[in-house]
Amino acid sequence: ILGIRGSVESISDYRVLFGIVNIVIMLGGAFLNVLLPSVSKAVAEGNVSAQNRVAYQGTKYLTMFLCFCSFGVMSVSNDLITAYIGNQYLYLVFWLNLWLISTLSSHIQCLSSIILAGTRLKAIAAITIIASVVSIALCWFLVPMFEVGGAIISYMCFSLILIVFYYFYYYPYVMQINSFEIFFKKVMPFVATGLVSSLIVMNIKMNFG
Fold it and tell me: Deepest in the core among 45, 50, 54, 84, taking most CB within 10 A?
């Protein structure tokens, strides 16, 4: 869509940002590859205790890791863009930071490993299709206005739709998991700490060079 509705510059900008963000995405995705075999065994054996450990403790440590990566890169995003492609591209820092924040949605991968190991996938497939259609439609209308930012906003909306679906429906009603405890005790403390720390570091660098 960037190639159709955007400009050549927006495609180049996207490739630059994706090259940086993809490192965080790949690190987060590695957790799912490690967890899936053991979770599949736990689901097959009906081991609820093991599944709960993955759901609660796994999400906690994955969120901690993602926050370290995402907010760590955010803290040096200005310097990273300057060193990578030059200070004439500093306008990309805002979009890079926004995309990095959106990668935190990957914290659902621990619970996703439990879902993928089971057979109740129809609702997941349906909401993924809906989120994809909404995201593509948004991207079509937003790219002419925000260039590469339109694609990033669309991706954030895609992630938000999935997170709302999981936390408000799938976790509590299908998986019988306390989504409130996961979000407010296992996720938000690390997100809040990482965001505040990153803002402090960026402010210090801005004031003292």
Answer: 54
